[in-house]
Write a structure and sequence with these properties.
heterodimer, A: 267 residues, 4-stranded antiparallel beta sheet, globular, B: 380 residues, mainly alpha, ABC transporter involved in vitamin B12 uptake, BtuC, Arc Repressor Mutant, subunit A, 3-stranded antiparallel beta sheet, elongated, binds adenosine-5'-triphosphate, binds magnesium ion
Chain lengths: 267, 380
C-alpha cells in the first residue's frame, strides 16, 4: 500500500462488488452482481421496493452473509476497512422511544474509534456538536430522541455518520420522509463530502431528482441493470428494464407527478 | 461474628440479613432488568424464571447440598438451557416466539414440580426447605445467602457497567453496532446471561413464580419518570431495592405471607404510582395537559370570533351576544366557559348579562394568534 502512488490509489474503485449473490431462505434477492463505485462520486442506487437495495448495502457492510461473491471497500475486505466506512441505516430500523438524547446518539459514531470500554469524553462531545451544527440540529443536542420529527431523526443519523469521519459513506434512504428544505440541506452536505474526495452511496427513491443530485447511478432489480455516470446510463430504456415497464417516460420536461406515480405504484 | 451473643441480638442479625439480601437482590435485578425490558425480552424473563425450577431441585439431588451458591448455579445452567431451547425452537420449527416461550415455560416448570414432589417424598429432611423456591421466603435468608448474592450480583453489575456503552449501542441500533465491527452476538449472549443472573439471584427470596416481576416491573416504573438511560437504570435499581426490602420485612415480621407475593404487591404500588403520577408520561399529567390544551383552544376560538365581530361592528361597543358567538363556533366549543377564561385573562369583558366585548389586550392577542396561524399554515 505505502509504495503505491496516490494516482494509483485514486484509480482503485472505492467499492468493488464481484459476483455477489445474496439469498434469504434460498430465494436470491441479489443475483450475480458486479459493481464498481469509483472513488469520489456521489452515487444513487435506484430500483423498485424489494429490489435488494438495502440488502446490497448490508452486504457491503458484512451485515448479511452472501451466498457467493465478495465485496472490497478501498481495496480491502470490509472488516479491514471498516474504520474508513460510515453508515446511515434506514430510519425505521431503530426504536426511537429508546431513552436517550440526540447528543448521545451522535456520539455513537465515535464508538468504533474509541474502542472497548472507554467512554466518550469532551473531544467526542465537541465532534458531535460540530456535526449537529452541520445538519442544522445544533439546538437539539439535549432533545430526547422520542421528541424528534422524522426529518430530524434522519439528520441525527447523518450527524452520527459524519462524526465517523469516514472516506466511504453508505446511506439507506437518507431522504426518506424529509421536507424539501431538509432535502436540499442534506444534498448540499453530501456534495460537500464529495468535494472533500469522499465517496457517498445513497439508496434513493425519487427518480426525478437523480440527475440533479447524483453524478453516478446504479439501477438494480435483483440483477444489476446498469451502472455508470448518470449522463450515460440514466435513461428510459434502463429505467424501463429496472421498473418493469411501469415507468412510462423520463424526459426532463415531463410532469413530475407522473414520475412520482411510478414510485408510488411499487409501494 | 458472635453467633451466641444474646438472643435478642439474634433477631437484629436476622433483620440485617433480610434487609441486606432483599436490597442487593432488588438493586441487581431491577437495574439489570432495564435492558431486558428495552430489548422487549420481558416474557423471556418470565419463561426463564419458571424454567429454572428443575435446575434447583436437580442441583440439590445431585449434590445433596443446600448451599445457595450450588442451587443458584443449577438454576442458572437450566435457565440457560431453557433460553437455548427457545431459540432452537424458533429457528428450526415454524413455532413462533410466543408459543415457544409458553412451551418451554410449561415443560420445564412441570418437570420441576414433578421433581420437587418426588424429592419431598424422600425421608431426607433436608429437602423440606425446597418448597420455598416456589413463592420465596425472606425470613430464611442467612448470611451465606447474602454473601452469595453480593458475589454474583457484584460481578454482574461490574460487567454491566464496564460494557455500558457497548450494551447501549447493541440494544439501540444493532445494525450500526455490527457495522462498527462489534461482536454483537456475543453481547446478546452476555445480556441474556445477565438476565439469567438477575433472575436466579432472587429465587429463594421471591420464588420462581413471581421473580420475573422483580426484573420487569422496576424498569417499567422507572421508564415513566425519565428519558435518560442512566437514570432509568438507577431508578429501576432503587425501586427494586425499595420494594424488595419493604416486601421482605413485611412478609418476615408483620404478615404471615410468602415473600414473593408481598414484594410483588409493593412493586405493584410503585408501578401504579408511576403510571399515574409521573410527570410527562403519567396518566394524570397527560389528562391535565389535554384539558389545558382544549381550554386554550376554546379561548382562542372564542377570542378570534370576538375579534372578527368587533371588526365588523366597529364603533359599536355595546357588545356581542353569547348566542351569536355560539352560532359562529357552531357548537364546537363551550362559548360561556371560554368567555370566563378570557375574562380572567383580561382579554374580554362583559358588557351586559348576555353580551361581551373584546378588550384592547384581547385585540392584540387575537392579531398575534392570527399571524401565528398564518405562519404555520404557510409551512405546510
Ligand atoms: N431478513 C430477511 N429475511 C427474509 N427476506 C428478506 C429479509 N430482508 C429482506 N428480505 C427480502 O429480500 C428482498 C429485498 O429486500 P431489500 O430490503 O433489500 O429491498 P429494498 O430494495 O431495500 O426495498 P425497499 O425499497 O422497500 O427498501 C425483499 O423481497 C425482501 O422481502
Ligand atoms: Mg430498503
Amino acid at each position: 500500500m505505502t509504495t503505491m502512488t496516490s494516482a494509483a490509489l485514486e484509480s482503485q474503485p472505492a467499492i468493488a462488488v464481484r459476483d455477489l449473490t445474496v439469498a434469504y431462505n434460498d430465494r436470491p434477492v441479489i443475483w450475480d452482481l458486479d459493481l464498481d463505485v469509483p472513488a469520489g462520486v456521489l452515487m444513487a442506487i435506484v430500483g423498485p421496493n424489494g429490489a435488494g437495495k438495502t440488502t446490497l448495502i448490508k452486504a457491503m457492510l458484512d451485515l448479511v452473509r452472501p451466498a457467493a461473491g465478495q465485496v472490497e471497500i478501498l481495496g480491502q475486505p470490509y472488516r479491514k476497512s471498516r474504520d474508513r466506512v460510515g453508515y446511515v441505516p434506514q430510519r425505521g430500523s431503530v426504536d426511537w422511544d429508546f431513552p436517550t438524547n440526540v447528543l448521545d446518539v451522535v456520539q455513537m459514531g465515535r464508538y468504533g474509534a474509541l474502542g472497548w470500554i472507554r467512554r466518550p469524553g469532551n473531544r467526542e462531545r465537541e465532534l458531535a456538536l460540530e456535526a449537529l451544527d452541520k445538519v442544522s440540529m445544533g439546538e437539539f443536542a439535549d432533545r430526547q430522541i422520542s421528541q424528534l420529527s422524522g426529518g430530524q431523526q434522519q439528520r441525527v443519523f447523518l450527524a452520527r455518520a459524519l462524526v465517523q469521519n469516514a472516506d466511504v459513506y453508505l446511506m439507506d434512504e437518507p431522504f426518506q420522509g424529509v421536507d424539501a428544505t431538509t432535502e436540499r440541506a442534506i444534498i448540499t452536505l453530501l456534495k460537500e463530502l464529495r468535494s472533500e474526495g469522499k465517496t457517498v452511496v445513497c439508496v434513493h427513491h425519487d427518480l426525478q431528482t437523480v440527475p440533479d443530485y447524483f453524478d453516478w447511478v446504479a439501477l438494480l432489480n435483483i440483477r444489476k441493470i446498469a451502472s455508470g455516470p448518470v449522463s450515460e446510463v440514466y435513461n428510459e430504456t434502463n429505467l424501463r428494464l429496472t421498473y418493469g415497464g411501469r415507468v412510462a417516460f423520463l424526459s426532463r420536461d415531463a410532469a413530475a407527478p407522473a414520475t412520482a406515480q411510478a414510485a408510488v405504484e411499487e409501494d | 461474628m458472635f453467633p451466641d451473643f444474646l438472643t435478642d441480638i439474634y433477631s437484629d442479625y436476622t433483620i440485617r440479613n433480610i434487609t441486606l439480601g432483599a436490597m442487593v437482590l432488588g438493586l441487581v435485578s431491577g437495574s439489570l432488568g432495564t435492558f431486558a425490558v428495552l430489548r422487549r425480552q420481558s416474557l423471556l424473563g418470565d419463561s426463564i424464571s419458571h424454567a429454572v425450577l428443575p435446575g434447583i431441585i436437580l442441583a440439590f439431588m445431585l449434590t445433596g447440598s443446600r448451599d445457595p451458591l450450588i442451587l443458584i448455579l443449577g438454576a442458572a445452567i437450566v435457565g440457560w438451557l431453557a433460553t437455548l431451547s427457545i431459540m432452537a425452537i424458533v429457528n428450526t420449527t415454524r413455532i413462533k416466539q410466543d408459543a415457544s416461550l409458553a412451551l418451554v415455560l410449561s415443560v420445564f416448570f412441570g418437570f420441576g414440580m414433578v421433581l420437587m414432589t418426588f424429592v419431598q417424598r424422600q425421608p431426607d429432611a433436608a429437602a423440606a426447605g425446597l418448597q420455598r423456591f416456589l413463592f420465596g421466603q425472606a425470613a430464611a435468608i442467612i448470611w451465606d445467602d447474602v454473601r452469595t448474592m453480593l458475589l454474583i450480583g457484584g460481578a454482574a453489575m461490574a460487567v454491566f457497567l464496564l460494557f455500558w456503552k457497548e450494551f447501549k449501542l447493541v440494544v439501540f441500533d444493532r445494525a450500526f453496532a455490527f457495522s462498527l465491527g462489534m461482536p454483537v452476538r456475543r453481547f446478546d449472549v452476555l445480556l441474556t446471561t445477565l438476565l439469567v443472573i438477575a433472575i436466579v439471584i432472587g429465587l429463594q427470596t421471591v420464588g420462581v413464580i413471581l421473580m420475573s416481576a422483580m426484573v420487569v416491573a422496576p424498569a417499567a416504573a422507572a421508564r415513566q419518570w425519565t428519558d435518560r438511560l442512566g437514570l432509568v437504570t438507577t431508578l429501576a435499581g432503587l425501586f427494586g431495592a425499595l420494594a424488595g426490602v419493604t416486601g421482605a420485612l413485611i412478609s418476615a415480621y408483620a404478615a404471615r405471607m410468602p415473600t414473593g407475593p408481598t414484594i410483588v404487591l409493593c412493586l405493584t404500588a410503585i408501578v401504579l404510582f408511576s403510571l399515574v403520577l409521573a410527570p410527562n408520561r403519567g396518566i394524570l399529567w397527560a389528562w391535565v395537559r389535554q384539558h389545558r390544551q382544549s381550554r386554550e383552544l376554546r379561548s382562542r376560538v372564542v377570542l378570534a370570533d370576538l375579534y372578527w365581530l368587533s371588526q365588523q361592528h366597529a364603533g359599536d361597543d355595546s357588545g356581542h351576544s353569547i348566542a351569536t358567538l355560539e352560532a359562529m363556533s357552531a357548537g364546537r366549543v363551550a362559548v360561556d366557559h371560554g368567555l370566563e377564561d378570557l375574562e380572567q385573562a383580561g382579554l374580554a369583558e362583559r358588557t351586559d348579562e348576555e353580551t361581551w366585548t373584546i378588550t384592547e389586550r384581547g385585540r392584540e392577542q387575537a392579531i398575534r394568534d392570527l399571524a401565528e396561524e398564518e405562519r404555520e399554515g404557510s409551512d405546510v
